[in-house]
Specification:
The protein contains seven helices and 22 strands. The chain is α+β, with helices and mostly antiparallel strands and 379 residues long. The chain folds into two domains: 282 residues, Aminopeptidase; 76 residues, RNA polymerase II/Efflux pump adaptor protein, barrel-sandwich hybrid domain (OB fold (Dihydrolipoamide Acetyltransferase, E2P)), CATH 2.40.50.100. The strands form five sheets. A nine-stranded mixed β-sheet has the order 1-2-4-3-9-13-11-12-14, with helices on both faces. A hairpin with a 2-residue loop joins strand 5 and strand 6. The N and C termini lie far apart (43 Å). The model has no long low-confidence stretch (mean pLDDT 97).
């Protein structure tokens, strides 16, 4: 079936304005498996949009050859609201400037009403339960009414994605290596995704605390399995946040490489016909997100890094120094920033002038850290 392009209008934010989501649909609606891929929910994270551009070209070619086997939905620009936000000639698409907050936090709660909605309909048949749960989530979304442009955006994307077997939310960090965020329930099943993308880290968390887009879709299944242990409930929505390196890594070479990795993943998962070839080696095993330290600046100033991306570090080792440019005594102008764990540098801050408590770097280790509990994100 030829690709269908949909234009879905959002609730009008202000008079005389109208934004829309453009959705590219491949395959037959309702076919299995289903994959949903969206780019740049944080609208100032550009790499994902270029990856989606290349992926769409690959899928268009496959579609012309009648190679689409499942249903694939691609949203190349997931956040038209954020994409319109410029301050001092700089795109600022991480937060909604009207006060609605981080675009990737506080997504619709698809779980709370589910136990009462579908609990009495569960059976010993896992496929039946999967269908019933999807119907229950759809009912929750159908009953929800948007009250703002932001809520309209979230409901639109959730309605496009909720019944997917696979969800890829394409993001990037400041300056970083390729990495993934997943739930423990989907590891090691997602090993092929990590290997195809050349991911240096797969960070696992059952609930990172921010109700992000990916977790709003994947965790209802996991919570239901806990609530109803006597019934077979699969983790039927493998949702991953894909961090396409850093915000400056915007070029065709990297974007095409990543798009080809996603395309081969879709082939392995029987969404697209064709031989993906041998699976590349996995660079690193997954680790618990609580073993990834998010190092904060102890003071403001100029950060000077002592460790490169991917470089190993030891507990207590200096990874950076923060320089006070107005220090009276130059010998006292540098404050060391040390790692509290053994691991490697996954990401660093691109802006070299920091305020106190700004993120300096992420260090991925293997041992859960006591202070990494509660909200695991950078909020």
């Amino acid at each position: 079936m030829p690709k269908i392009t949909e234009y879905i209008h959002l609730l009008t934010g202000t008079a005389l304005t109208q934004r829309q989501i453009i959705a590219h649909r491949f395959g037959v609606r309702g076919a299995r498996p289903k994959a949903y891929i969206q780019a740049s929910l944080h609208a100032d994270e550009i790499p994902g949009m270029l990856v989606a551009h290349h992926l769409l070209k690959l899928l268009d070619q496959a579609d012309q050859k009648n190679q689409i086997r499942g249903e694939i939905v691609v949203i190349p620009v997931a956040n038209p609201i954020g994409l319109s936000q410029f301050m001092n000639a700089k795109l600022t698409g991480w937060y909604e400037l009207g006060g609605a907050g981080n675009f990737n936090r506080n997504w619709p709660d698809l779980y709370s009403a589910l136990p009462e909605t579908i609990g009495h309909l569960l059976t010993p048949n896992a496929d039946h339960n999967t269908q019933i749960i999807r119907q229950g989530i759809q009912q929750i979304l159908d009953q929800a009414k948007p009250f703002s442009e932001m809520s309209s955006l979230k409901l639109t994307l959730a309605r496009l994605a909720f019944d997917s077997d696979f969800v890829l939310d394409l993001h990037c960090d400041d300056e970083a290596l390729m990495h993934l965020f997943l739930t423990p329930a989907h590891w090691p099943d997602a090993t092929d995704l990590a290997a195809e993308l050349g991911s240096y880290a797969s960070l696992l968390s059952a609930d990172s605390g921010g109700q992000s887009f990916d977790e709003s879709l994947s965790t209802p299944w996991i919570k239901l399995a806990t609530d109803f242990p006597n019934w077979p409930i699969p983790a039927a929505c493998m949702a991953a946040t894909v961090e396409h390196r850093g915000s400056a890594d915007v070029n065709d070479e990297l974007a095409l490489k990543d798009a080809q990795g996603i395309f081969r993943f879709l082939q392995r998962r029987q969404l697209v016909a064709g031989n993906p070839g041998a699976l590349p080696p996995l660079l690193n095993q997954a680790t618990d997100f609580t073993a990834c330290d998010i190092i904060k600046a102890p003071t403001g100033g100029i950060v000077v890094y002592r460790k490169r991306l991917g470089e190993p570090v030891k507990k207590g080792e200096v990874i950076a120094e923060i320089v006070d440019p107005v220090a009276i005594d130059s010998s006292q102008a540098r404050i060391p920033v040390v790692s509290v764990t053994d691991g490697f540098i996954l990401s660093r801050r691109l802006d070299h002038f920091l305020r106190p408590s700004d993120t300096v770097a992420k260090v991925v280790g293997k041992i859960p850290l006591p202070h990494r509990n509660g909200l695991l994100l950078e909020d």
